[in-house]
């Protein structure tokens, strides 16, 4: 801020206002109340530069002394506005969908009314006192802070680290105070600073109308009210406190504006300055260890999915994102789900992890994890099970980690929350897990923030978070996207090592069929929300379905002709080819089927 003219000017004005508020009552408080009946309503002079009031008191000294009360009342009103706005702003997060929507509607209605009209309305109800004016202005400013808070929370709530906290069993209050509020602190503080300037002006207006500070107390608004009576004989009597309001208002507004420019007031606020803030060290969980997952026999699958369906409401009817998907994941097996963007891969994974919220609907004939029905089990037990036995590795580790928390704290929270470990033991476990995922200097890394990690390191740290306990299933949703081939190879080797060392099963999701072929034991090919082919990874080169063959042909290799265009997917031709290839089994729908017969020559039309 000091490097820019705007910031330097703002801080200079703010320092002037603060110094005056602190020192003026101490230096001139008594002199400002001295009455001189022989010099009533005098004009400007060398002794009284602004003149005197109807009791002969020096108006310049009274204007300076009034700084403390004027600024203090404005700050109190701002505090009321921010507090009430925060309560309204976080209510949708805490109250749930129905009550939260009602609060959002109420906030929208309140924002539609001009703030000054609301302040006059509340002032008429509360009465003509300084305390009443504080609450009137504070409540009038609350809706705008509430709307800002709701918008900021909506942006943070959509991030992956919030979803991870919820599926890990973290309560709403803990999510709010530990993950949400630290990430919206800067914009709220900046807007509160700007709001203080507005509150100062509003308070002066109420006092000017006789609804604020009452005699014998006085603020700038009260002085303007007294001075306007003689504005034709001594205009400085009203202009001096008015000028003081302008200077103080500019100090608050310009400080807020320059701070906003310095911070960026966007994602830079969350990912830049915010990461330097130190958070309170969490207390170790007082709960006992989470219930262990139900044992399963050697022959039973870790995950069993039968006829899984996911749908969302649409403008013309339900949108079916996943349509009748069925598969299993055996113990120690790496199963890949591959398909083009929009085929339903990630939606299937989110449904298995129970991360799809309203208005989405998840239905299945069977959805069992470690023998537990995920659709009928209670929320408390479900969170304990998923938090300890299922790990989710998201595609974008930068949005998956909370940018305001150190990496060690985020990994340690898994152990303190679900295993009842102490904070010290959990941090030691976090360092051990970072070492396990091939991150060097793990004891130093646990004290760093996500922005200090490279993309590959963040992805490996995300896997390390997944193995903080001993998961039975790791769902990796495109963990190698946007990574260079060297880091991609390291991540794949890491997943294999975790499978071999811990016996964990892996559900690996990717659009890159070559990566899936390298890592997985078995491959599921998805198209338009359905599994169109299932086969061992070693048999991919002899895939029978035209869509799978088109995916393979679309991957460049060393033998690709340089003088011909790269192969791309033509989904319309693929659908026709799939219909002809499997018309004997697909039935009336003509949908591509996994049990299609030998494909016809039209299958090649799917690759161009």
Features:
single chain; 608 residues; alpha/beta; MetI-like fold; Rossmann fold; 3 domains; 6-stranded mixed β-sheet; 5-stranded antiparallel β-sheet; 11 strands; elongated
Describe the secondary-structure layout.
Layout: H1 5-28, H2 59-95, H3 97-111, H4 115-126, H5 130-157, H6 160-167, H7 172-208, H8 220-227, H9 236-263, H10 267-271, E1 303-312, E2 319-329, E3 334-338, H11 345-352, E4 361-363, E5 366-369, E6 372-373, H12 379-389, E7 390-393, H13 397-400, H14 407-418, H15 423-436, H16 442-445, H17 455-466, E8 473-477, H18 485-502, E9 505-510, H19 513-519, E10 522-527, E11 530-536, H20 546-553, H21 571-581, H22 583-586
Parallel strand pairs: 3-9, 3-10, 7-8, 8-9
Antiparallel strand pairs: 1-2, 1-4, 1-5, 5-6, 10-11
């Amino acid at each position: 801020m000091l490097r820019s003219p705007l910031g330097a000017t703002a801080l200079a004005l703010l320092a002037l206002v603060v110094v005056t508020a602190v020192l003026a009552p101490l230096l001139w408080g008594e002199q400002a109340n001295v009455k001189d009946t022989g010099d009533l309503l005098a004009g400007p002079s060398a002794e009284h530069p602004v003149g005197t009031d109807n009791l002969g008191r020096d108006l310049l000294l009274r204007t300076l002394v009034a700084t403390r009360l004027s600024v203090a009342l404005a700050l109190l009103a701002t505090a009321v506005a921010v507090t009430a706005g925060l309560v309204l702003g976080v209510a949708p997060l805490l109250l749930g969908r129905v009550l939260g929507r009602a609060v959002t509607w109420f906030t929208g209605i309140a924002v539609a009314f001009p703030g000054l009209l609301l302040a006059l309305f509340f002032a008429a109800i509360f009465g003509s006192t300084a305390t009443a004016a504080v609450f009137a202005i504070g409540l009038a400013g609350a809706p705008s802070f509430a709307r800002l808070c709701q918008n900021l929370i909506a942006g943070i709530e959509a991030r992956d680290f919030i979803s991870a906290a919820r599926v890990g069993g973290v309560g709403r209050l803990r999510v709010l105070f530990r993950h949400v509020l630290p990430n919206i602190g800067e914009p709220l503080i900046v807007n509160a600073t700007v709001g203080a300037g507005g509150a100062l002006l509003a308070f002066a207006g109420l006092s000017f109308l006789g609804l604020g500070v009452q005699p014998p107390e006085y603020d700038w608004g009260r002085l303007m009210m007294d001075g306007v009576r003689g504005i034709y004989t001594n205009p400085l009597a009203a202009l001096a406190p008015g000028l003081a309001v302008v200077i103080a208002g500019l100090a608050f507004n310009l400080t807020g504006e320059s701070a906003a420019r310095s911070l960026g007031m966007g994602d830079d606020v969350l990912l830049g300055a915010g990461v330097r803030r130190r958070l309170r060290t969490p207390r170790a969980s007082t709960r006992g260890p989470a219930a262990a997952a139900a044992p399963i026999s050697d022959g039973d699958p870790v995950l069993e999915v039968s006829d899984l369906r996911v749908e969302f409401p649409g403008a013309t009817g339900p949108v079916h994102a996943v349509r009748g998907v069925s598969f299993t994941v055996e113990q120690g097996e790496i199963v890949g789900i591959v398909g083009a963007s929009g085929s339903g891969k990630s939606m299937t994974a989110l449904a298995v992890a129970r991360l799809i919220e309203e208005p989405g609907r998840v239905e299945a004939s069977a959805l069992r994890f470690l023998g537990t029905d995920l659709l009928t089990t209670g929320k408390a037990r479900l969170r304990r099970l998923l938090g300890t036995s299922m790990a989710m590795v998201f595609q974008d580790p930068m949005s998956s980690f909370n940018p305001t928390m150190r990496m060690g704290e985020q990994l340690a929270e898994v152990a303190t929350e679900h295993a009842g470990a102490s904070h010290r033991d959990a941090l030691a476990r976090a360092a051990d897990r970072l070492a396990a995922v091939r991150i060097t200097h793990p004891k130093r890394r646990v004290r760093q923030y996500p922005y200090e990690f490279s993309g590959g390191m963040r992805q490996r740290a995300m896997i390390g978070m997944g193995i903080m306990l001993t998961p039975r299933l790791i769902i990796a949703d495109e963990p190698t996207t946007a990574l260079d081939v060297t880091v991609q190879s390291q991540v794949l080797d890491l997943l294999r090592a975790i499978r071999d060392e811990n016996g964990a099963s892996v559900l690996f999701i990717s659009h890159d069929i070559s990566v899936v072929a390298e890592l997985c034991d078995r491959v599921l090919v998805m198209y338009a929300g359905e599994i169109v082919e299932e086969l061992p990874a070693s048999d991919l080169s002899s895939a029978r379905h035209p869509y799978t063959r088109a995916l393979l042909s679309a991957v460049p290799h060393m033998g690709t002709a340089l003088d011909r265009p790269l192969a791309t997917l033509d989904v319309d031709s693929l659908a026709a080819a799939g219909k002809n290839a499997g018309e004997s089994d697909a039935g009336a729908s003509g949908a591509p089927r996994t049990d299609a017969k030998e494909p016809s020559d039209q299958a090649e039309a799917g690759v161009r």
